[in-house]
């Protein structure tokens, strides 16, 4: 039982919000407000779509889905990479009260099969590129699923047919949600420590949470560039929030750094949402010559922490732009910690603590607990971060999630963290990724942060190599900067770390170089895959 030391529970009151409606009704009301404003832009083709066009397509797609038997609370799936087209059935699912379960097309076929097995969708929107995979999975699962192809097909339903004029489109009325705690969308968790779980996020959690982060008011009528897919909770939130604020959403379908730089310049982007990995890749070789970022007001990134040195390099690449980190979790319906760029105090604390993931946000409560005793800890004491809010998920689809909450109703985030006297939070590591040498726990993230301070290191991952007596022997897997290729050895980096750490934290398994670290579909470095590469002799 946790020590009820409530003085060390941080609670921030909720901000007032307008009367809530279901997402279908809300989006149905918001889209026509912006008419000829640009809603979506594809920088690869230059194609744009107005809110008026998007609204018409969404209504027509809604009617087509109904005509093909999709009913309220039926599950549909969108298995595609980010494109302008795949947002339409996503919005339509809210219009008709269906639940979309969005799956990244980048996943291995075996993972796609596992996820489809969980949700058994009545309809799948996908592309010809992965149609054979989806078709094979549906056949093996023996489920009655209609397959809709966004591009050309002669075998399945074609999405263009869903966009044809309909006699009832001017009379269409969106589905009215009577209980805002009903599931609105299923988002699969990141899968950084195992197979993704099907997270059920409700209407109340999504709509209310958007009104709590004060920085979202800065998005009104702005141009947002993001590289987040609908299979990520940030992609879900950004797409809905875009309609709420009349945003031109520049949909980045390609993660190549140079293309993102040019898109910022070409479309005068005002806000940028990227994973930490993508942002660091963009800044690897500095800002390209001739790229003007003067329109860019702020950058929000997340997925992992940055060192002070990395943050300063990012600031150098984006002079005059507010840059800040955030911590989000799918089970918590999105962002749970961030700095507020409308607050001078937060801006100062962000400059002071560039490796912090931010401060508490409205309508959330926080505590840090001891890993063994569950005693609630105070400032500057490391333990598990737990959060509580009315915006949490309903649970996992067809799976028990009761062990994620403690006896006081706090969600176990799985992060080892601490906060300082200013209530700035710092992530130390993931509990499941702790390594153990003999009887001592080791945080691989702490060793990674030391490696990142070396001027030759661009990115890295620290993993445990099994030892029959000691448990884990630490190994560093390193991507060196282009300028350092051939000038640094693994033994030098090993010695660099061993000279700074305690005996049990030394890199006993050495250092290996790799050209590119394996990532999860949410662009987090996958220690699990990195370790597998080493054990299979691929590195």
Describe this structure in words.
Residues 446-524 form the AMP-binding enzyme C-terminal domain. Keywords: Ligase, Peroxisome. The protein is α/β, with parallel strands linked by helices and 539 residues long. The protein folds into 3 domains: 1-20 and 203-433, Rossmann fold; 23-179, 3-Layer(aba) Sandwich (Rossmann fold), CATH 3.40.50; 436-535, ANL, C-terminal domain (GMP Synthetase, Chain A, domain 3). Helix content is 28%, strand content 25%. The longest helix has 17 residues, at 51-67. The model has no long low-confidence stretch (mean pLDDT 90).
Highlighted features:
539 residues, alpha/beta, Rossmann fold, GMP Synthetase, Chain A, domain 3, 3 domains, 9-stranded mixed sheet, 28 strands, globular, AMP-dep_synth/lig_dom
Determine the number of helices (DSSP H or I, runs of at least 4 residues): 15
How much of the polypeptide forms β-strand, as a percent range?
A: 25-35%
> How much helical structure, as a percent, in the residues?
25-40%
Taking the alpha carbons of the first and last residues, their distance comes to 45 Å
Overall form: globular
Mean pLDDT: 90
Count up the domains: 3
Low-confidence stretches: none
Secondary structure blueprint with pairings:
Elements (H helix, E strand, L loop, with lengths): L9 E2 L11 H12 L3 E5 L4 E4 H17 L7 E5 L7 H10 L2 E5 L5 H11 L3 E4 L1 H14 L4 E4 L7 E2 H4 L20 E6 L9 E5 H8 L12 E4 L6 H13 L2 E4 L5 H10 L4 E5 H7 L15 E5 L5 H10 L4 E8 L4 E5 L5 H9 L6 E2 L4 E5 L6 E2 L5 E6 L6 E2 L14 E9 L5 E6 L4 E3 L2 E3 L1 H9 L4 E11 L3 E10 L9 H9 L12 E3 L13 H9 L4
Parallel strand pairs: 2-12, 4-5, 4-6, 5-9, 6-7, 7-8, 11-12, 11-13, 13-14, 14-15, 27-28
Antiparallel strand pairs: 1-18, 2-3, 9-10, 10-21, 15-16, 16-17, 18-19, 18-20, 20-22, 22-23, 24-25, 26-27
């Amino acid at each position: 039982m946790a020590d009820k030391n409530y003085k060390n529970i941080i609670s921030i009151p909720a901000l007032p919000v307008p009367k809530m409606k279901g997402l279908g009704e809300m989006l149905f009301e918001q889209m026509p407000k912006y008419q000829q404003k640009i809603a979506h832009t594809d920088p690869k083709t230059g194609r744009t779509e107005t809110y008026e066009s998007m609204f018409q397509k969404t209504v027509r797609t809604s009617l087509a889905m109904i005509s093909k038997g999709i009913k309220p609370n039926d599950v549909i799936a969108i298995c595609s990479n980010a494109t302008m087209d795949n947002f339409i059935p996503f919005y339509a699912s809210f219009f008709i009260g269906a639940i979309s379960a969005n799956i990244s097309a980048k996943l291995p076929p075996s993972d796609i099969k596992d996820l489809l097995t969980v949700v058994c969708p009545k309809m799948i929107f996908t592309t010809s590129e992965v149609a054979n995979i989806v078709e094979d999975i549906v056949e093996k699962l023996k489920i009655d699923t209609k397959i809709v192809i966004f591009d050309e097909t002669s075998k399945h339903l074609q999405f263009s047919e869903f966009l044809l004029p309909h006699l009832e489109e001017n009379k269409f009325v969106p589905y009215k949600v009577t209980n805002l705690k009903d599931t609105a969308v299923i988002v699969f968790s990141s899968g950084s420590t195992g197979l993704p779980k099907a997270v059920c996020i409700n209407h109340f959690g999504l709509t209310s949470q958007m009104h709590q982060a004060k920085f979202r008011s800065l998005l009104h009528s702005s141009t947002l560039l993001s590289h987040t897919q609908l299979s990520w909770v940030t992609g879900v939130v950004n797409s809905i929030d875009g309609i709420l604020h009349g945003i031109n959403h520049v949909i980045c379908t390609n993660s190549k750094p140079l293309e993102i730089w040019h898109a910022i310049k070409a479309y005068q982007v005002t806000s940028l949402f990227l994973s930490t990995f993508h942002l660091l890749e963009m800044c690897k070789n500095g800002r390209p010559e001739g790229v003007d970022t003067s329109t860019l007001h702020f950058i929000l990134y997340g997925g992992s922490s940055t060192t002070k040195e990395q943050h300063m390099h990012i600031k150098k690449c984006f002079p005059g732009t507010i840059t800040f980190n955030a911590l989000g979790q799918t089970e918590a319906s999105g962002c749970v910690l961030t700095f507020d760029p409308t607050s001078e105090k937060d801006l100062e604390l962000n400059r002071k603590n560039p490796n912090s993931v931010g401060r508490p946000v409205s309508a959330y409560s926080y505590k840090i607990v001891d890993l063994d005793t569950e005693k609630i800890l105070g400032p500057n004491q490391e333990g598990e971060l737990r959060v509580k809010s009315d915006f949490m998920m309903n649970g996992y689809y067809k799976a028990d999630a009761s062990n994620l909450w403690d006896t006081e109703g706090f969600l176990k985030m799985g992060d080892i963290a601490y906060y300082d006297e200013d209530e700035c939070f710092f992530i130390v590591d993931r509990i499941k990724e702790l390594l153990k040498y003999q009887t001592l726990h080791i945080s691989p993230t702490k060793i990674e942060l030391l490696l990142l301070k070396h001027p030759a290191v661009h990115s890295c991952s620290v993993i445990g190599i099994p030892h029959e007596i000691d448990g884990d022997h630490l190994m560093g897997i390193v991507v060196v900067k282009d300028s350092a290729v051939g000038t640094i050895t693994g033994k030098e980096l090993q010695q660099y770390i061993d000279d700074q750490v305690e005996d049990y934290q030394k890199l006993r398994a050495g250092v290996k170089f790799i050209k590119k670290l394996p990532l999860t579909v949410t662009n987090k470095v996958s220690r699990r895959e990195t370790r597998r590469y080493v054990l299979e002799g691929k590195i």
